[in-house]
């Protein structure tokens, strides 16, 4: 069945799997070279699922390398979202197809097509997944476009997080891709099987779980993981989220943690790339601050991260925003990691980011312009549609 199959009942949830090596990556300056290296080293298969695949300098570099690998005989399969990539040139994807890449558009906005349904317009593929040879995968907030590239390379230097995982959890990420691939009417591929290589590298100690929300029955998987970890927190909860418009349940869990004496801090953008969501989120600041939740606003380029770390031992990186759209409409993916060393590294990066941020001051909020108050109230009314 075609896109309608995305409303089936959920499949069994993947369990945390041990024996993975996790590397945290930050911003395009680290993420893009690591992804390109993995693609260049591919021997059998490259799976790419991308919300925003632009045809700018960055996107073209990836498109050219993927095309080269397809010409070498590597199986290259790509899903890109029709809305997220609406500015991309179709000729770039045509060139990739001509090179042997199997490229598919997720839910094109094409009312003239016989099978088009209005309901698919709001159902977007917001994931960013790269899986290579079923052994290594990447996910996080980074899209393939110049906004994430460093300014020294002509980019905008957006702040973002990504994760590289090498190990058996790559098969969970592969299964996530293939579930969407087959639901969109593409050929079924054989399931992968993990076989340790002869040159297995040391340091593969992380327990990793890939969480997704393809089926309606699985919709709460990522959200539930967040809520359970927040409820169990004893020392701190640090969250970086680019589109932070938490509903009442999430706010209550954060407030309860703060009331228990947990240090709850949320890093949010100082300037938003989507103004409607930016102002809708700011409308909640007063309620969050009064509950003991600390808010910091990032002061440099756009903050696009979707990550969290709790009590050192648990952290998550992915595409999921704490807003209504990620919960109800978008296809998302997050990786949950249980590893104290990785957790401490993420905590250190979060604290480093706070040094480039300013705390939200309740007193300053009271004297903000009337125009800002009106924008916040107006867009909050439409928070479930943004």
Outline the structure in words:
- This protein is of the alpha+beta class and 386 residues long.
- The chain contains twelve helices and 15 strands.
- It has a 15-stranded mixed beta sheet with strand order 4-3-2-5-6-7-1-8-14-13-12-9-10-11-15, with helices on both faces.
- Helix 5 (221-232) packs parallel to helix 6 (248-259).
Helices and strands in order, then pairings?
Layout: E1 17-26, H1 27-40, E2 45-50, H2 57-71, E3 75-81, H3 90-98, E4 102-106, E5 128-132, E6 136-140, E7 161-166, H4 170-183, E8 206-212, H5 221-232, E9 236-241, H6 248-259, E10 263-269, H7 275-282, H8 285-290, E11 294-298, E12 306-310, E13 314-318, H9 324-328, E14 333-338, H10 340-354, E15 357-359, H11 362-366, H12 370-381
Parallel strand pairs: 2-3, 3-4, 9-10, 10-11
Antiparallel strand pairs: 1-7, 1-8, 2-5, 5-6, 6-7, 8-14, 9-12, 11-15, 12-13, 13-14
Helix pairs in contact: 2-3, 5-6, 7-12
In short:
By secondary structure, the chain is of the alpha+beta class. 33% of the residues lie in helices and 23% in strands.
- Structural class by helix and strand composition: alpha+beta
Strand arrangement in the largest pleated sheet: 4-3-2-5-6-7-1-8-14-13-12-9-10-11-15
**Rg (CA only):** 20 Å
Largest sheet composition: 15 strands, mixed
Strand content: 15-25%
The global form is globular
The N- to C-terminal Cα distance equals 29 Å
The chain-level mean pLDDT equals 90
Helix content: 25-40%
Low-confidence runs: 1-11
User: What order do the SSEs take from the amino end to the carboxyl end, as H and E?
Assistant: EHEHEHEEEEHEHEHEHHEEEHEHEHH
Number of strands: 15
Annotation field: number of helices: 12
């Amino acid at each position: 069945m075609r896109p309608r199959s995305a409303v089936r009942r959920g499949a069994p949830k993947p369990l945390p799997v041990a024996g993975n090596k996790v590397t945290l990556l930050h911003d395009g300056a680290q993420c893009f070279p690591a992804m390109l290296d993995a693609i260049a080293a591919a021997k059998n298969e490259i799976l790419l699922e991308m919300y925003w695949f632009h045809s700018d300098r960055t996107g073209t570099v990836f498109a050219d390398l993927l095309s080269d690998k397809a010409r070498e005989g590597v199986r290259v399969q790509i899903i890109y979202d029709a809305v997220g990539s609406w500015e991309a040139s179709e000729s770039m994807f045509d060139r990739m197809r001509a090179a042997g890449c199997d490229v598919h558009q997720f839910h094109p906005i094409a009312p003239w097509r016989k099978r088009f349904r209005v309901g698919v317009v709001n159902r977007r593929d917001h994931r960013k997944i790269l899986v290579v040879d079923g052994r290594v995968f990447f996910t996080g907030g980074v899209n393939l476009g110049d906004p994430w590239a460093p300014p020294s390379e002509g980019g905008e230097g957006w702040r973002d997080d990504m994760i590289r995982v090498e190990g058996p959890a790559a098969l969970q990420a592969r299964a996530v891709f293939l579930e969407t691939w087959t639901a969109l009417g593409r050929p079924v591929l054989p399931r992968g099987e993990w076989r340790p290589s002869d040159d297995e590298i040391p340091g593969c100690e992380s327990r990793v779980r890939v969480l997704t929300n393809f089926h309606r029955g699985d919709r709460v998987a990522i959200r539930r993981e967040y809520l359970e970890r927040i409820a169990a927190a004893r020392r701190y909860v640090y969250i970086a989220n680019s589109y932070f418009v938490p509903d009442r349940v999430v706010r209550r869990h954060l407030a309860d943690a703060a009331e228990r004496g947990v240090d709850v801090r949320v890093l949010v953008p100082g300037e938003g790339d989507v103004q409607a969501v930016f102002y809708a989120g700011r409308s909640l600041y007063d309620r969050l601050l009064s509950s003991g939740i600390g808010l910091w606003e990032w002061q440099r380029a756009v903050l696009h991260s979707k990550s969290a770390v709790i009590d050192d031992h648990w952290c998550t990186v992915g595409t999921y925003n704490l807003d209504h759209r990620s919960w109800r409409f978008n296809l998302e993916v997050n990786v949950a990691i249980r590893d104290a060393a990785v957790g401490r590294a993420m905590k250190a990066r979060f604290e480093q980011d706070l040094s480039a941020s300013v705390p939200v001051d309740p007193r300053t909020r009271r004297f903000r312009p009337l125009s800002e108050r009106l924008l916040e109230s107006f867009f909050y009314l439409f928070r479930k549609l943004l």
